[in-house]
C-alpha cells in the first residue's frame, strides 16, 4: 500500500524524497497492516485530516515524541475492509472515522472496534475525518470542562484554524456570544459567515480595544470563557478582557510561545484555568471520546456543524498541506484524500 513515512525528524514542508533533507518518504509498497486481535478492524482510508500536532510531531517538537521511521497521521475516515472474528459493532462496508497517534497517512489502518465511530447517513465521509480530534477537542473543552452556557461570552483565539473554527461552531450551538480572533480579511469574512458575533482582525491591531468596543455596544462586562490554542502575546492581551470568575481553556501553543498566567491575578479575579489534553482521554477516559464523537457526528448529520475543507491534497502532495499549516493559510481543515478502490490497481497495494 501507499504510505507517507517519516524517516527522520525535520521540516515536512520539504517534498518527500526530494533531497537528503526531506524527513518524509512516500512508500508505494508499505506492508498492509494485519488485524491485531479478534476485535480489531481494518479500514480502507478515504481521508485523513492534517492537525498542527502532526506538523510538530515530524519537526520533533511535539510533547509526545515518535521515533522514526513511522507513518504520519492522526484523524481519519474510511470504509471497513475486514473485521476480526469477535467484532460485533461493524461489518465490511461500514463507514467509520477515528483518530490515532500516528499511521493514517496510508491506504489502510487497523484499529480496535471501540476506537472506531460509525459515520451516519447524511455525513460526508471526507469531512468526517476532521471530527474526532479537532472537533472532539473543542467539544470536550467547551462542553465538559468549561460547561459553556447560553448567553456567556466566549473568546476564541486562532479561530480560523482546525480546533478554533470547531470552537466557534460549538460555541454558537451552546448559545454563547462568540468573539473570534484571526488574521486577515479573508478569515474575518469567513468567521462572520459562520456566525461569529464579532471578529478581531489581528492584522489591524490588538485584541483589547476591539473586544472592549464590542462588549460596550452589547452592554456586556467581559469574557466568560477563553479558548486558547495559540499562546504568546494574544493570550496575554486576552487576559485583560476576562470577567471575574472567567474560565481559561489551555489548548495549545501555535504561536510557539507558552504563555504565563499570573497566579496573583487569577486569585483576585477568581479565574479557573483548565489544562486540556485530548490525547490522554483514550487511555484515561475512553467513554468520553466515544460520547463526544457520536454527538458531533449526529450534529454533522443534522447540519448543525459543517467542516470547512480548505483544500484536499493527494498523499504525494502532503508537503503542500504541511506548508498551508505552517504558513497560517488554512481556514478550517486541510485534508489528504485517497482514491476509491476501483481506481487503485492491485500492484499499488
Ligand atoms: N490540547 C489538545 O488536546 C489539542 C488538540 C488539538 C490541537 N491542539 C493544539 O492546538 C493548536 C492549534 O491546532 P490546529 O490543528 O487547530 O492548528 P491550525 O489549524 O494550524 O490553527 C492554528 C491557528 O493558530 C493561529 N496562529 C497564531 N500564531 C501562529 C503561528 N505563529 N503559527 C501558526 N499558527 C498561528 C493561526 O491563525 P491566524 O493566522 O489567523 O492567527 C492558525 O489558524 C496547536 O498548538 C495544537 O497542537 C491541542
TrEMBL record:
<feature type="region of interest" description="Disordered">
    <location>
        <begin position="9"/>
        <end position="29"/>
    </location>
</feature>
<dbReference type="InterPro" id="IPR011032">
    <property type="entry name" value="GroES-like_sf"/>
</dbReference>
<dbReference type="InterPro" id="IPR036291">
    <property type="entry name" value="NAD(P)-bd_dom_sf"/>
</dbReference>
<dbReference type="GO" id="GO:0008270">
    <property type="term" value="F:zinc ion binding"/>
</dbReference>
<dbReference type="InterPro" id="IPR051397">
    <property type="entry name" value="Zn-ADH-like_protein"/>
</dbReference>
<protein>
    <recommendedName>
        <fullName>Enoyl reductase (ER) domain-containing protein</fullName>
    </recommendedName>
</protein>
<dbReference type="InterPro" id="IPR020843">
    <property type="entry name" value="ER"/>
</dbReference>
<dbReference type="InterPro" id="IPR002364">
    <property type="entry name" value="Quin_OxRdtase/zeta-crystal_CS"/>
</dbReference>
<dbReference type="Pfam" id="PF00107">
    <property type="entry name" value="ADH_zinc_N"/>
</dbReference>
<feature type="domain" description="Enoyl reductase (ER)">
    <location>
        <begin position="19"/>
        <end position="336"/>
    </location>
</feature>
<dbReference type="Pfam" id="PF08240">
    <property type="entry name" value="ADH_N"/>
</dbReference>
<dbReference type="GO" id="GO:0016491">
    <property type="term" value="F:oxidoreductase activity"/>
</dbReference>
<feature type="compositionally biased region" description="Polar residues">
    <location>
        <begin position="16"/>
        <end position="28"/>
    </location>
</feature>
<dbReference type="InterPro" id="IPR013154">
    <property type="entry name" value="ADH-like_N"/>
</dbReference>
<dbReference type="InterPro" id="IPR013149">
    <property type="entry name" value="ADH-like_C"/>
</dbReference>
